[in-house]
Fold:
Amino acid sequence: QVQLVESGGGLVQAGGSLRLSCAASGRTSSRATTAWFRQAPGKEREFVAHISWNGGSTYYADSVKGRFTISRDNAKNAVYLQMNSLKPEDTAVYYCAADRSTYYRGSYYYTLRTSYDYWGQGTQVTVSS
Structure:
């Protein structure tokens, strides 16, 4: 079992930055592909970014490419999402998710919500205009 706890959300003005953290604990947590998803009010949960277990592969949604950076520190069992140039449309609850398997299945596979076995409780990000 893997437990995920997000932190770092808050209120920021448009153009500002935030850094989200996802602390993972449990068996093989440092060997899992991990992602960030987000869900705005009244909308479906959508993919933001993912990173392979060794950090060698990353992938971003077009809406955040060039503004967000996903990274990880396996020694700390943590995954981060650096968010720059934030826009009001980035307002959402941000969730961390991890795959049960340590086998990397390719970038497209990990854009799907159903590819993840573990989810955190989420952290709210609000961007004011």
Summary: DSSP finds no helices and eleven strands in the chain.
